[in-house]
Amino acid sequence: MDFHLQQLEQKSIYVLRETKARFKNPAMLWSMGKDSTCMLYLCKRAFFGKLPFPAIHLDSGHDFPETYQFRDKIVQEWGVNLIIGKVKHEIDEISGTTEGLNKADCLKKLLDEYKFDALIVSIRRDEHGIRAKERYFSPRDEEFKWNFENQPPEVFNYISEFKDASHVRVHPLLHWTELDVWMYTKEKNIPFNPLYLAKNGKRYRSLGYREVTHPVQSNADTIDKIIEELKSSQIGERSGRELDKEKEYVMQRLRELGYM
Amino acid sequence: MQEIPIVLIGHKDHGKSTLIGRLLLDTKSVRESRLKEVKEVDESIGQKFELAHLVDSFKEERENEMTMDTTRAILKGKERNYQLIDVPGHKELIASMLTGAAGAEAALLLVSIEEGIREQTRQHLEIAKLLGIDQLGVVVNKMDKVGYQKEEFDQITERMKEILDKIGYSSENIHFFPISAWEGDNVVERSRKMPWYKEKTVLEFIEGEIKEPESFQNLPLIFLVQDKYLDECKEILVGPVESGRLKVNQKILILPDRREGEIKTIRDITGESVEAETGQNIGIEICQGKKMLTNISRGNVITTLNSNIKTSRDISGEIFWITAPSGSNLVFECGTASVEGQLVEPKVVNQGEKTYYRILLRKEIAVFPRSRTILGKIVIKDKGKIIAVGSIQ
Question: Which domains are seen in chain A, by residue range?
């Protein structure tokens, strides 16, 4: 395997093992997208084939049918302990879509119920200007707020303890890019949702709820073609998502309120 | 292909974020859609587009024209890629600066020719030295503000050389670049306004001079015990191989208690293996004769029998204080070890200072003084929060 991918992988494995060592009750978010499925695969590698914590699907019932099929197939084949959180299907004021604050609200309820102290989330720096400001370990307070002005230092592999936090967000994929995820998915033959592949000149770059996610123009109908396309693409990864535009700092406001 | 982390350091408003924006733009490392998006946001809130906004994404950062938190962006080079690390230049935001700078392989120090050498010019340089960043370039920015004059550039270069030597960088080996990040002079494109400067542009320096991180492969074995997993009654020690290499059946030493043992099995992330090397996260089982050794845990270090990894409870070196300690009840961390102890020196600590330190720990830990490995570095925690970062001499 390419040395660069090996380094990305090893760093993520270290962060995952550190999460297990430092927290009593972690869980991971799984949207069945390429990033969190890659994360699920990394967890299997980090913990010698077993998944030591549950995966959470924040479900409003409005994911694509292909996404549900993909979920059920992986759950069965990989032995995933799946928790389904029911998300309200209504438009919130800040994001103007159905997949902003509702997801954060659902997550709050789940964390109350299961008492998770760490939540593994598959965000990457290259996805969004605001996500680029994150740490590998990032505490959230009782209201789930992200106090970005006062983030604790992370120096080499040393991190602070988070005694006042309601839970800690862990981001083991922070240093990966969209291209890295696809190259790794190809290298390891990790299954992925077929919606990423082009059909009739269009494909999905990023997957969310079906009413607010749009395909982009593309002829990439194989993973090799996706990789080639990304090497020269001038279009942003999340351009097909109604949520997440930088406009008026929607992402920052959502993240401050507990969104992923 | 390796991605080399480069941190941009220096006083506030000397142009760190602008230089990153300029490098990203002129090398086409940023997608057109991203540029368009940033411009649209600026327009929608009535702000002028700035190159710095490519990394300064927070509303507060754009409104106040300052970086508040560290960010990384990828610069696409010809042969390899780079992570450009932006950090805040404000004295109050030094914890964020340390987060960004730690682990960087090289640093570019920005000095504004208008403002000259300021408090964080020196402080950031001291921190870079303490963190073990040996590769450095000094970027003299805002040359457009002084009519691109050579005399002013020469003067500031001379003054910077004295400071560099004092801090421990040998100034004769350090490149100085007269640039305007805003106008794009000598960053990626060679400036026509400074015909007197014939040496490398900033990008040529990054591409041609910055070396890849040195491998720890030929150093003594350091395996940091991070955790223990139970697998079918077997106890597997997991952790990273920080340096050196190891093999099945190899005799080893468990630090700090210096027990001897033998490596029975190695598992890398793909399965059973007979050896492992630097950079791998693995799992091992250790035995002593026919008996499996079990009472090994997080904080222990596995090394070879004749290794020069030391154990000590009396540790000293140089340290940078993010904040002053609130009392004497402190925790010291080195590798995965975490031990209580007492700060013997300095007696008085000021926030934001670099000092000599000496500590006495409750018990011994494994250390590898003066090395670039994690066992050559230490952090101090006060009530669980990191308050200082140091090197071990």
Answer: 3-177+245-256 (3.40.50.620), 192-240 (no CATH)
